[in-house]
Amino acid sequence: MRKLIPIMLLAASSLAVAQGGDQNEATDVSIAAETGVVTIASKGADVRNVLYDLFTQSKNNFVLEANIRFILYLSLTGVEFEEALNIVCTVTSLEYELDNGIYFIGKKKVGSGPLPKRDSRPKPQAKRGKLTSAELQKHLTTRFMRADLRKVYESFSEQTGVEIIVDANVPMYKIDAFLIDTSLEYALDVLARATQLKYTLNDNKQIVISKKS
Q1: How do 37-46 and 173-183 pair as beta strands?
Q2: What contacts 24+ positions apart, CB below 8 Å, involve 101-105?
Q3: Which one of 7, 96, 168, 177 is most buried, counting C-beta atoms within 10 A?
């Protein structure tokens, strides 16, 4: 049974936390966040479902041509996203074009050859420095009941424009978070105390949430 632990705060804020028990639920498609490689297992699933899971898990955008049908049997382990997509398209006689960050997928046209591989290696970026005090004082409001911890941090990012990264080893906590017109820094402190996690500011204007050592 999941337990919900109430946390008493100021009159304007309240929060509670519980650890979820289903973070290991099996999926057909999984993405390794550290390396970006994918694992796909399909035993007779339609290619539309395989593509949907692949793009959803890898957080890429795609549009699929209408009337695409193909029963797919495959098992790919630890391959690059682009390679997995090329394999799926080859087996199902599909092709794709990448335009403005969106993959447009459709039936392969007669006489069309394989599309050139795009260099998917991350481009080095200059460090942007640490967040300023003014950025940490941006205000936010949340009203969540038994929401995933990551969804709460996602809401922080959307309201303040500050990128928050949650380590993969952080438990799948469920949160009741009512934070009314509080600063980002205050909200981070509240969640850190309630969940026994820590947050650090890196040199790329990001906040990293992780377990305490």
Answers
A1: unpaired
A2: 101/61, 102/61, 102/62, 102/63, 103/55, 103/60, 103/61, 103/62, 103/63, 104/62, 104/63, 104/65, 105/51, 105/62, 105/63, 105/64, 105/65, 105/68
A3: 177
State CA 195 to chain mean position distance: 20
* The two structure tokens encoding residue 28: 């057909």
The token pair at 17 is: 């936390």
From the list 176, 167, 177, the residue with the least C-alpha distance to 3 is 176
Hunting for tokens 């398209």 — which residue is that? 89
DSSP of 172-212: -EEEEEEEEEEEHHHHHHHHHHHHTEEEEE-TBSEEEEEE-
Q: Sort strands 13-19 and 102-107 into parallel, antiparallel or unpaired.
A: unpaired
What's the CA gap between 188 and 205, in Å, rounded? 15
- Spatial strand order of the sheet with 29-31 comes to 29-31, 37-46, 71-80
CB 153 within 8 A of CB 126: no
The 10s digit of each residue's pLDDT in 52-68 is: 988 888 888 999 998 89
- Sole residue written with tokens 């490689």: 37
Choice among 40-44, 131-135, 152-156 with the minimum mean pLDDT:
40-44
Angstrom distance (rounded) from CA 91 to CA 86: 9
